[in-house]
Amino acid sequence: MSTDPLISRRTALRGGLLLGAGIAVGGFEVTLASDAAAAAVPNPGIASCTTWGARAVGGLNEIATRPNKILVHHTDTPNQTDVSKDAAYRLARSIQNYHMDHNGWSDTGQHFTNSRGGYVMEGRHTSLAHLTSGSGMVVGAHCPGQNNQAIGIENEGTYMTAEPPAAQWNRLIDLCAYICQQYAIAPTQIFGHRDYLATDCPGDVLYAKLPALRQAVADRLNGTPPSFQVVLDAPTAGANWGSSSYSAQRYGADYRYASPQAVSDGAYYRATLPAAGNYKVETWYPADPGYNPSTPFVVFASGGNSTVTVDQRANGGKWTNLGTFAFGGGERDILAVSRWSSGAGYVIADAVRVTAV
Ligand SMILES: [Zn+2]
């Protein structure tokens, strides 16, 4: 079980906790009930499409890759005072009708809907099954460029000047924590729609609450949120580096690859660090038996370069720790994936995560 990348990632996220069996059926919180500190985040009672009376649909695009972030939206509908379950289910049906009949989409655009009364509902069909299993996702229609990597949550209402009701806010925390747990998404990877598109969504007030949301989700997951974390998914690399979306284990839309050769032709990852200090450096790569068994990662630490070699034939699709290094503050190169490997097979440069420790 520890070889399952999802479980390994989730274990890492939860601070080394070993989770019991039953993840696929969502019953593991029962397994762990005797250990209060280890209690998993339960499904927050998400009503399925069948429960709220969705129309049947077809032609959905389900993919094997897991999402890497959450995007928070507001529906831009009136802040109605009917906070009943019936009102929530009516809302879900009206959104589906609008998205199918007016927008011409195959189904509801977002993955989940959170009503003003705090009723959480499945949006696009199969979103709930994927979330429960922690495996793959259905491509949504809530933010261009992010639909195959971000879970979209629509919060009923308009939050430009008004606060979301407490029930809705608390349920948003519950839902995000459950999503982060099931997909091993770091709480730092919760964003607003406007972070990826020129839009008011999710409203000035709700957007300003996103730092608090990330903190609350981190607390729910029993983790101490890092003071700084950044994911770098677009290295600078020369023309001999190709781009591929071949492997479902990739982070984000694609990754870079190159043939091993004794040349200085790295794929460089650059970040702006808030201050001089120690940072944990991790990499995410898709593994393949044909990839390189000893890919050099050259870390540009303040005390000098350190090279960490990674076997990219195995253990892909998760964060792999390269170590903790001292860096100066400000904008700087963090590391380069080098082609200078004695091993055969492509060297892979996908994503790098830098976390203050
Ligand atoms: Zn939006």
TrEMBL record:
Gene3D superfamilies, per the entry: Peptidoglycan recognition protein-like
Domain Peptidoglycan recognition protein family, first and last residues per copy: 44-197
The N-acetylmuramoyl-L-alanine amidase domain covers which part of the protein? 55-203
Pfam families, alphabetized: Amidase_2 (PF01510), Golvesin_C (PF25275)
GO terms of biological process kind = peptidoglycan catabolic process
Q: Name one GO molecular function term.
A: zinc ion binding
Tell me which family the UniProt entry assigns to this protein.
Belongs to the N-acetylmuramoyl-L-alanine amidase 2 family.
What is this protein called in UniProt?
A: N-acetylmuramoyl-L-alanine amidase
Species assigned in the record: Actinorhabdospora filicis
